[in-house]
C-alpha cells in the first residue's frame, strides 16, 4: 500500500512533548518496531535537528538518518528501500530537491513509496511530495512548481502558524497555480495512493483544507480531522 503522511506543522521538531503525529506515522507502517530514516537535507543536515529526531524515535523505532552533505554513503538506494518509514524535515525545499536530484534520491523515494515504505514529513517534507507548493525557499513566499509529483496538485504547510500563508496560497491559486491541500500546525493529511484517506490532529482546532479555483474564484473547504492521532 502506497502511503504519504504530511504534517503542516507539529511532530517532534515543533511539539517535542506531544508525540501523537510521530506515533501515527509509526502505526501506519504496521510494524511493532519499524525502521524509520530521517532526511534532514532541507536544513543542511543540521546536527541538532538529527539529534532531536533520534531522541524522539529511538525508544519506539529503529531510527537512522541519511546525510547528503559532505561525503554521502554509497548505498543510498538500498538504505532507503530497507526502511519502513522515511521522515523528511523542514527547511529550504528548493535546495533539498536540487540536492536529492543530484544524488538520485528523488527516484529512490518514488521507488520506496511504490514498494510500500511510508513517506512522511513536515513543511518542506510536506511540499516535496506534491507537484507544487507554497515555499519561502527564495525569501518571500512564492510558488514552487517542481516537486516530486507523487501526489497531484499543490500543498501549503503552516496554514494557521504563518499569517501570510493563507492569503499567498489563495493569491497563487487565483492566478492559475494548481489547487491542492493546506494543513494547520498540528494537523496531518494521510494519503493512500494519491487519494486523501484521513486527517488527524495533535492539538485542538487543527484542520486540513482543500483549496481549489472554481469559476475564477478560490474555494477553501475545511477538512476537520476524523481522529486524534
Summarize the structure.
The protein is an alpha/beta fold and 229 residues long.
Structural commentary:
This protein is of the alpha/beta class and 229 residues long. The protein has a single domain, classed as Class I glutamine amidotransferase (GATase) domain (Rossmann fold, 3-Layer(aba) Sandwich), CATH 3.40.50. Helices cover 28% and strands 31% of the residues. It has eight helices and 14 strands. Strands 3-2-4-5-1-10-11-14 form an eight-stranded mixed β-sheet, sandwiched between helices. Strands 7-6-8-9-12-13 form a six-stranded mixed β-sheet. Strand 12 and strand 13 form a beta hairpin. The longest helix is centred in the first third of the chain and has 11 residues, at 47-57. The chain is globular, with a radius of gyration of 16 Å. The two termini are 20 Å apart. The mean pLDDT is 96.
Amino acid at each position: 500500500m502506497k502511503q504519504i503522511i504530511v504534517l503542516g506543522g507539529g511532530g517532534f521538531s515543533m511539539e517535542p512533548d506531544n508525540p501523537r503525529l510521530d506515533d501515527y506515522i509509526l502505526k501506519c507502517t504496521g510494524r511493532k518496531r519499524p525502521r524509520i530514516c530521517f532526511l534532514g537535507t532541507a536544513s543542511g543536515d543540521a546536527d541538532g535537528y538529527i539529534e532531536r529526531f533520534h531522541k524522539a524515535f529511538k525508544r519506539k523505532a529503529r531510527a537512522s538518518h541519511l546525510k547528503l552533505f559532505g561525503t554521502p554513503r554509497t548505498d543510498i538506494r538500498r538504505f532507503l528501500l530497507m526502511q519502513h518509514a522515511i521522515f523528511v524535515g523542514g527547511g529550504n525545499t528548493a535546495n533539498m530537491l536540487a540536492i536529492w536530484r543530484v544524488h538520485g534520491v528523488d527516484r529512490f523515494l518514488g521507488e520506496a513509496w511504490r514498494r510500500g515504505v511510508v513517506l512522511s514529513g513536515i513543511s518542506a517534507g510536506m511540499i516535496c511530495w506534491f507537484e507544487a507548493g507554497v515555499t519561502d525557499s527564495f525569501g518571500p513566499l512564492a510558488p514552487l512548481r517542481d516537486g516530486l509529483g507523487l501526489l497531484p496538485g499543490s500543498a501549503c504547510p503552516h496554514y494557521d502558524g504563518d499569517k501570510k500563508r493563507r492569503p499567498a496560497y489563495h493569491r497563487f491559486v487565483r492566478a492559475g497555480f494548481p489547487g491542492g491541500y493546506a494543513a494547520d500546525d498540528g494537523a496531518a493529511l494521510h494519503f493512500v495512493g494519491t487519494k486523501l484517506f484521513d486527517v488527524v490532529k495533535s492539538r485542538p482546532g487543527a484542520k486540513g483544507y482543500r483549496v481549489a479555483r472554481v469559476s475564477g474564484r478560490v474555494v477553501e473547504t475545511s477538512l476537520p480531522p476524523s481522529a486524534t492521532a
